[in-house]
Amino acid sequence: MAFAIRFDRTGGPEVLHRVEIEVGEPGPGEVRVRHHAVGLNFADIYYRSGRYPVTLPAGLGVEAAGVVEAVGPQVDGFRAGDRVTYTGSPLGAYSSERVLPAAQLIRLPDEIDSVTAAATTTRGLTAAYLLRRIHPLRAGDTVLLHAAAGGVGLIFAQWAKLLGINVIGTVSTEEKAKIAAAHGCDHVLIHTREDVAARVRELTGGTGVPVVFDSIGATTFDGSLDSLSRRGLLVSFGAASGPVPPVDPMTLTGKGSLFLTRPGLADYIADPAERAELAGELFGHIAAGRIAPEVNQRYDLSDAVRAHHELESGATIGSSVFTL
């Protein structure tokens, strides 16, 4: 019998529970996929806690990799036995198998195993659009990256090094600082004990950086603004410490005519051609060994409660996956 992790009310990790499910056959434009690995992402906490509203009861998870088991009518390009990965709505990746739209699938190269795919599809495509679509970064540019030892951060730093971009990374501990440095960060700041904006100014000769990539949110937002050079761009793409406060546009003017964007991955992979291009670049780097994802936490899918506790506490490093 297939199973899934569901929640009937919002709250802490304890609201998650396992249920048996009937998956059924795929309809027009759909496929049934048996999961081999499921991605664990910080956004899963937002859905579970109620920060991102969903209709309850609900499944959880947006990312998984596995094998196509059945194909419905009007599906072109996929057949039973194909190895695939995906990221995006609808929720429900925390399951042993599921039916979903074929349009979401990305075919996996032979060199990429399911665990690597589940650990890097969301994080890797996020790093891809941050580096390749948000701002015209050039070799020699210096950027500030928060959460540099996280799943996105470790991929981002390695990719930035390939592009000749210098990265000032922030982390919360000495252990994470060593890992971030080993994966491409040119400078690593421990934000829990350093004035990040002051150190960024020091490292850039007083000018600041043209772009800050901030997935932490509330606790780092002001420092991120103060780290930017004139007409710099703050890319706020997450809120691990809580949502950022309301921003008076005059604040941006007063700090150097700054720009602020709050992007979402979905809008950068909505176009199938663009998604294929970004995925091809990502998996090409991984297959060639130019980017080495760190899958440091592996959990049984039935152990979702413990996995969420550890992710939410900040105890994890790199990427986390569920295996089946």
TrEMBL record:
Record-annotated Enoyl reductase (ER) domain positions: 11-322
PANTHER family the record matches: QUINONE OXIDOREDUCTASE PIG3-RELATED, QUINONE OXIDOREDUCTASE-RELATED
| GO cellular component annotations of the record | cytosol
Taxonomic path = Bacteria, Bacillati, Actinomycetota, Actinomycetes, Mycobacteriales
Organism superkingdom:
Bacteria
- Keywords of this entry: NADP, Oxidoreductase
Q: Which SMART domains match?
A: PKS_ER
UniProt-recorded name of the protein: Quinone oxidoreductase
One MF term from GO for this chain? zinc ion binding
Please report a single Pfam family linked to this protein: ADH_N
